[in-house]
């Protein structure tokens, strides 16, 4: 088989919508995703052969059917993309960019081993993950992210505990709490950091609410489930610490002031065996950054997000993006962006002429504008309060779990080396971010800590340099890159 026209990284709503559009207009596509089955985060499904608890919602089922029914598509499930390398650049390509303009090698590792795909275009739709929030006890067994808890329920039909507390600031937490209740879990409290009064909407909010009525209805339905199950939902509340030995046994919650700081004398200890955290999301931009794509800081939208033009092309020729990597915005917007990015790729590959691409893009852009109006409003209202969350960290709090670096080590490094003020410099001195997760877990917390300690903004502190492999792979995967007889798969 010849090399694919396009490699799509990620089979969530953005990737699925892109695949369907690319296939419809004659592009050959290879889709790579770490999960066992397409669907991404929101339409995550049990492994084949498992009896599903409930199928994906109608919109998801239709999108999955459309994409998986598209001819000319190869599905590489259970496979990780660990780098987007320069075409035939050998190990030099690890720094991203491409000596052959517009051509890249997509380095994958999966059940059949290493593959280096050489498409004519790359579309990154790698989604997002839960914002990790360090505080005393956050590394105890039993402390999970809300998305992690949801993955147990969706993919395995399992409840990872008996007594749940959910803490965070993102509306998805309510949806997860309702899913847990429906699955038979005992949810003892949902603690939300924003105050109720922060959520009152003005006229602009009302207009946005009309645009996003589907999501609002989902949130209200979740609240109804929680009310019926008598689950307390408390606003203006933060989780200060988690305790237990060896596993989680209780959490301490506190009321917060207007700025999100715990109010003295309001601590409450609540017994539980599972704490699910949902303070927001981090856009999965590591592959884009590793490939050299420009990013911008947008705290409410997931931190660093990939810069793009009106066709969702990045600053690197031959690489486009769609979905949460452009900013966390929900499944509907991700799918709309997937279609638009696909039209842009088809235009660039000469599979659509400019007039036809423009005509097809017009209604998609209209829908995208409608989505963005609502989403921006929602994001600004539920933006993670990074400064308040950084205030929870004590000297002993682990910041980097892979390298066991504590907040005290970071602060000491800053005292010992007063010239240090970037995340990358602190990484080099402390080793935070050098472990197997390559900083996915510690980078947001460490960057905020450095920002607080040095009085700089997160933009000034910056991110860790993103390098291949962006995810853990065996050494033979790296060896294959410079081996001319290596397993360069064709399509
Ligand atoms: C944990 C979690 C749970 C969520 N649950 C809900 C929910 O219940 N309801 C809701 O409305 N919204 C939910 N969201 C938000 C929702 O995920 C998004 O709105 C939507 O799924 C975004 O679509 P996407 O295509 O951009 O990304 P995603 O759906 O996240 O899809 C990205 C895909 O890329 C794959 N991927 C990433 N990196 C690599 C790599 N290096 N190699 C190979 N594959 C890779 C991932 O496995 C994933 O399947 C959730 C988000 C998260 C993070």
TrEMBL record:
Report whether Magnesium shows up as a keyword of the record. Answer: no
Q: Which Pfam families match?
A: Fer2_BFD, Pyr_redox_2
InterPro entries with a match to the protein in the record? BFD-like_2Fe2S-bd_dom, BFD-like_2Fe2S-bd_dom_sf, FAD/NAD-bd_sf, FAD/NAD-binding_dom, Metab_Enz_Cyan_OpOx_G3PDH, Opine_Oxase_asu/HCN_bsu
Determine the domain of life of the protein's source. Answer: Bacteria
Where does the record place the FAD/NAD(P)-binding domain? 5-332
SUPFAM superfamilies associated with the record: FAD/NAD(P)-binding domain (SSF51905)
The answer on whether this UniProt entry bears the keyword Ion transport reads no
Supply the alphabetized keyword list.
Oxidoreductase
| Cross-referenced PANTHER family | ANAEROBIC GLYCEROL-3-PHOSPHATE DEHYDROGENASE SUBUNIT B (PTHR42949:SF3)
This one is known as FAD-dependent oxidoreductase
């Amino acid at each position: 088989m010849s090399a694919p026209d396009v490699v799509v990284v990620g089979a969530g709503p953005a990737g699925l919508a892109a695949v369907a559009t690319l296939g419809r207009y004659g592009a050959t596509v290879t889709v790579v995703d770490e999960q066992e089955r397409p669907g991404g985060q929101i339409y995550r499904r049990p492994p084949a052969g498992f009896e599903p608890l409930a199928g994906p919602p109608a919109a998801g089922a239709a999108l999955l059917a459309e994409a998986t029914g598209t001819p000319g598509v190869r599905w590489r499930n259970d496979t990780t993309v660990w780098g987007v390398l320069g075409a035939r650049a050998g190990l030099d390509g690890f720094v991203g960019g491409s000596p052959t303009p517009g051509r890249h090698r997509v380095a994958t590792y999966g059940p059949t081993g290493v593959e280096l795909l050489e498409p004519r275009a790359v579309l990154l739709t790698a989604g997002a993950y839960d914002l990790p929030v360090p505080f005393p006890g956050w590394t105890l067994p039993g402390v999970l992210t809300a998305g992690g808890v949801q993955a147990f329920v969706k993919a395995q039909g399992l409840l990872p505990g008996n007594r749940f507390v959910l803490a965070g600031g993102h509306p998805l937490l309510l949806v997860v709490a309702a899913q847990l209740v429906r699955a038979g879990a005992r949810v003892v409290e949902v603690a939300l950091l924003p105050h109720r009064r922060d959520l009152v909407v003005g006229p602009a909010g009302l207009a946005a609410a009309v645009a996003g009525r589907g999501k609002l209805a989902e949130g209200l339905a979740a609240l109804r489930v929680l009310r019926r199950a008598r689950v307390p939902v408390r606003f203006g509340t933060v989780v200060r610490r988690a305790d237990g030995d060896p596993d989680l046994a209780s959490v301490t919650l506190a009321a917060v002031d207007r700025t999100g700081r715990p109010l003295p004398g309001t601590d409450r200890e609540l017994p539980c065996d599972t704490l699910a955290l949902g303070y927001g999301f981090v856009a999965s931009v590591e592959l884009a950054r590793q490939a050299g794509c420009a990013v911008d800081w947008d705290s409410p939208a997931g931190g660093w997000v990939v810069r793009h033009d009106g066709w969702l092309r990045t600053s690197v020729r031959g690489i486009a993006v769609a979905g949460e990597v452009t900013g966390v915005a929900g499944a509907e917007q991700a799918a709309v962006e997937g279609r638009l990015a696909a039209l842009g790729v088809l235009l660039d590959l000469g599979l659509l002429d400019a007039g036809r691409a423009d005509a097809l893009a017009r209604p998609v852009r209209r829908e995208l504008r409608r989505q963005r109006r609502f989403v921006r409003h929602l994001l600004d209202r539920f933006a993670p309060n990074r400064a308040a969350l950084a205030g929870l960290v004590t000297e002993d709090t682990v910041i980097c779990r892979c390298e066991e670096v504590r907040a005290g080590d970071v602060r000491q490094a800053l005292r010992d080396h007063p010239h240090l003020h970037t995340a990358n410099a602190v990484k080099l001195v402390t080793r935070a971010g050098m472990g197997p997760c390559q900083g996915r877990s510690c980078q947001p917390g460490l960057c905020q800590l450095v920002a607080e300690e040095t009085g700089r903004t997160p933009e000034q502190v910056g991110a860790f340099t993103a390098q291949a492999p962006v995810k853990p792979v065996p050494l033979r995967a790296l060896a294959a890159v410079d081996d001319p007889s290596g397993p360069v798969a064709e399509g």
